[in-house]
Every structure is written in structure tokens, then in C-alpha cells.
Specification:
The protein has 22 helices and 26 strands. It has 671 residues and is of the alpha/beta class. The longest helix is centred in the middle third of the chain and has 30 residues. The structure holds 5'-O-[(L-methionyl)-sulphamoyl]adenosine.
Length: 671
Amino acid sequence: MEPFYVTTPIYYVNDVPHLGHAYTTIVADTLARFARARGRRTFFLTGTDEHGQKIAEAARNASTTPQAFVDGVVARFRETWQQLGIANDDFIRTTDPRHESFVTWLWTRIAEGRAPDGEPNIYLGHYEGPYCVGCERFYTEGELENGRCPQHPDREIKVVKEPSYFFRMSAYAGRLLNHIERYPDFILPDYRRNEVVSFVRGGLKDLSISRTSFSWGIPVPGDPFHVIYVWLDALANYVSALGYGTERYTTFWGEGERGRAIHIIGKDILRFHAVYWPTMLMAAGLPLPRTVFAHGWWTVRGQKMSKSLPATRIDPLELVRDFGIDTVRYFLLREIPFGLDGDFSFEKLLERQKSDLGNDLGNLLNRTLALVHKFARGQVPHVTPNAAVEQRAIAPMREAMQAAVQEVPRFMEDLAPSRALEKIFEFVRRANQHVDEMVPWSLAKHDPEGALPAVLFGFLETDCSIARLLAPFMPSTARAMAAQIGMDPSLLEKWPEASDFGKQVKPGAPIGQPEPLFPRFDKERTLALLAKWTGGDVPAGAAGQATKPEPAQKPASGASTDVLPEVTIEEFQRLDLRVGRVVSASRVPKADKLLKLTIDIGTETREVVAGIAQSYSPEEVVGKQLIFVANLKPTKIRGILSSGMILAANAPGMLALSAVDREVPAGTKVR
Ligand code: MSP
């Protein structure tokens, strides 16, 4: 099997780790654990981005030196990953000497070569333009919104005017487009690829790759008056950590134009990874990463995470202390299809913990172990072969396991961990149903065929299979399950084969005492947690059954109470409502309320103009699945033919898009 190399972005150390960082890292950790279990040689890298103006300013604000400052924050990152059980193989810092020497080498190598148009790859010039220190990125005037950075509206935009080295990126646009076209899995998900393609087709500019107005960085070889642009420096980590030219490099970076690295990133930094980085690698003559996967952003109770809203700055360590590490992992991996934006709601987290984890998984283990204690003296039963019993007691679970063993890897190859978990939990639910169907309590009273030992043995094999399937996603739970079942924990390190069913637990081996995997939170605890994490702002019914039903709510002020005259079902059915996915979005020039959206409705794509620009940015809507009126008469808005309409809830000063609560194929009918 091919070696597997997965990376997270290296995190800026001007900020302590928060939920957004933890998300990317947990997904990458899961992919790495899965690849290891499948027997692939695996390398999982994370680290920290420590140079640049942003960090230099943060150090100055903390009245310390940049080096002392970064050393302090790096410790927080390391500790967080360690306590979250993240199994990274290496941790790269851009202040590591091994990194600095590689960046110097990379610069020199690029500078020695020529671009496809025959001009030198790097030349000295002069830069003048707006720069956002938050993004560490140059902007054009047109990209700013009201003179501010769209990502960091709280930060002052600086106008930089200084000598600078430039990378001749403009000359690489054609090669980059060819590469994107040739390898459809180079940029994922598809809707992000479209975004990059239209950006590159619009023409690439040369990239300013050095700064002179501060010194916290790696000096430009031969011109120490300049420091190397922090993004060139940072992107190089993916190679510097492997050690260019070593066996590790050859194994994991790969050869040819299509290398092996899978870069997991947030959608905010797609352009750096899908345009700057590959063109730099082309200029240096190095293989490109296999895949750049840009995931969506988490909001917290509907709000963007931001330093000015402390309630949105979730500390991952405190979160896992309160809710348990695997509840958090499960929620993050399962709740949102990887790629899309999601809202982190504590109510939904508690709901998943209660239903999927407690009622389905925890209950399955608990009841099966209790049965083995009661009817098999707490030991894995010995089974006498009997084809008829085997057919009823073992075969259905072997089949259910086989389906999961085969389908989960497909979802993981597509980088769809939420689908993979969905599949595993189908098995869990099927297993609970199987326990009911086998009526073990009645069998214990009346069992002419002597089927009970085989039935109980089948339960234990099922628990064991599920523990193994879950190990990459929820390693602590898998270990706790293994300890209770009394199974060999080394089985958790190997992805099962369907033919393992029936051979995983050892007849006669003692099983452990059942202990709840996900203890149920009582009413007080639930309310206390919600109050703590949501600042006391607990909506009605948030604690599930723990709260009394609230009296009917008054309509929020401004909501219309007048219901329109009745329509018949036939009249309603004349509307063709469908689920559509936004595949691209842009602002309509000179119309501050309008976005132009391209919507995929399965059979075709449609252009529509939507009045949502004051509540949603184009980046925010791309990828969303929305409810779409497909048979609305087309109309021209600002010269654009708008063919259809998306549905949204509109209250005074507030707008919310209508969506479906799980992924469905584009074009699915809504009734
Ligand atoms: N230092 C750069 C990356 C350089 S990689 C060569 C950087 N660092 S960062 O600290 O700002 O972290 C960015 C990453 O954190 C995002 O790309 C994303 O992976 C993750 N997230 C930060 N906030 C997030 C959310 N609110 N939601 C999900 N992930 C987010 O950019």
C-alpha cells in the first residue's frame, strides 16, 4: 500500500489553541490513525508558524522578545495536542534550524531557475499596496470591503511601500490550470476547485515574497536586509519537516509531478495552498501535493469565532474536560459533512452524546456484557458448531460488519469521515436490533437448541468489531471497550477484515465489568454545562427531556403574525422546490445587497441573484446546500438573468438561509 502523508496547517502562535485549530488537527489525526490501521506507512505532521509581522507585533504587545514569546505559546499547542491524544509523528516549528536551512535552500533553488516565459523566477522590485497583518497578505483595493480586510475587519489595514523581491507567479498560471484539470483530486471539495480555477483564469500577478520593514523572519539569501515572506516560509514546513533528500522525504513527499501529501486546511487559506504553494514547488522542480482539502468554518452558536467575542473562543482542553474527549471528537467528525461550514451548538453536542453515543453505542456494550455476566459466568462462551444457530445468531452480524469494513474505507478515501461514522453507527443500530431479535432473556429460560452460547458469543464478536472500526475515530472509547470486552487491545491497531468475525474474542477468556462509556448527564449537570458554555442563555427545551415544555412562545418582535389565505396541496405542489448546492458566488458590482450565485441542482447549474450580501459573504455561501425554487419565472436583475430563487428567513435586521439538515444529492425534491 502507498505511504500516506497528512498535514495540518501550522498554526500562528499569536493565538492560543481554540476549537477551530482542534478541528483540523482531530480530522488529520483520524485520517492518520485510519491509514496506520490499514497498514500504510504513515506520517502525520502538525506544527507552528512563528515568523512574520503578526507574531513580531504580538511579542511587542506582550513586552517580550519574539523568541521568548513564541516559545511560550508553542508549549500551549504541544500540551493541547498531547492532552487531546493527537498522535502526530512530528511537530515542526518555523524557528527550527532544520526548517530555516530548508527555506534558505528553497529560495536559492527557485532563484536559480527561470519561469516558463524564460524570465528569472525571482526579481527585485518595489511594492506598494494594502497589507493585512492578520492574514499576512497583500490585498488589492478592490478586494477590501469598505477599506477593511474581509477576514479581519477589526484590524487596521496598512499600506506597505517598500522594496521587495517578487516571485514570477504570473508565468505559472497555465501550468497550474493544466495540473488542476489533469488531477481532479488536487483541490477538494469540487466547489473549492471551481473557486481556484476562476481565480487563476482571471490571471495571476507576481507575488511579493520579501519584506524589509521588520526583521522577525528568515533573511533572504545574499540580501539580509530583506526577510522572506512569511507564507513562503510557512508553506515550506511540509517539506522541511521530512528532511529534503532523506528517505523519509522520498517516501512521503513522493516523486513526479503528483506527490503524496494530503494537506488538510481551512477554506480561509485555500489560495496560499492551491496557488502559491504549487507554483513555488513547480519553480523549484519538486512534486506537488496530491490533495489540498479545504474544510469549512465552525461558528459557535451562530457567531463567527472572534477575539472580540470571548464566548466563541472555545478552549478545546476545557471542552473535553467537561464533555469527554470522544464526545467532542465524535461530534466534530460526525455532525458536519467534511468541507462544509457548521455551527457548534452545545445542545446538538449533548443530543449526539445522549442518542448516538449513550443510547446506541454505550447501551449496546452495556447490555451485551451484562448478559454475558448473567448467563455465561462472565466468560467468552465456548460454542458448539450448529449451522442453523450460526445462521441466525452470527451470520447477520458478520454481514453487517462486512458492509462497514468495506464501505468505511471508501468514505475515508473520499475524505468523508462523517459518512464513515454514519456507516459504523448503522452497524451499531443494527446490532442493537439484533440483540432484541435474539431474545436472549427468553432463551435463557427456554433454549431447546442450546443456542444461547452462540448468541452471546456473536454479541461479543460484534462489540469487538465495532471497537476496531471506531478506533481511528474515537481511540479512547475503543480502548475502554476493549478493556471491558477483555479483547486483545492490539486488534485495535489493525483495520478488521470481514473474515475476522468469529475469531476475535477467545472462548473462556474473562470479560470485564460493564461500565457506562458515556455516562448520562443528569438534569442539573446538563443545565450547569449549558449555562457555563452559553453564558446562561439557554433556549427553551435545550436540555432535552430534562426541562419542562415551555408554554407556546410569543412571536419574536417584528415577526409577522398574519397567515396568508389557504392554498390547496395541489397549488403548493406547483412549486418545484429542490436542494441546490452553491458552487460559486460573487458580489454584484455596485449593488451592496446582491450576490450572484451559481447553483447546482443536479441536472444543471443555474445563476441566481440573491439579496443576501449584507448577511453573507461569497466565501460563506459557497458549498452550502440550500432550498431552491426551480420553476420560478426567470427575471433580469442588474442585467443578470436570475433563474430561480433561494429561500431564506427574513426578520428585521436578520437573515438566515434555509438549508437541509443533512447532505442529500443536489436536485433532491423538497416537499
Ligand atoms: N499560519 C497559517 C497557516 C500556515 S500553513 C502553511 C494560519 N494559521 S492559523 O492559526 O490562523 O490557523 C488557521 C487554521 O485553523 C485554518 O485554516 C483552519 O484550519 C483552522 N481554523 C481556525 N479557525 C477556524 C474555525 N472557526 N473553524 C474551523 N477551522 C478554523 O492560517
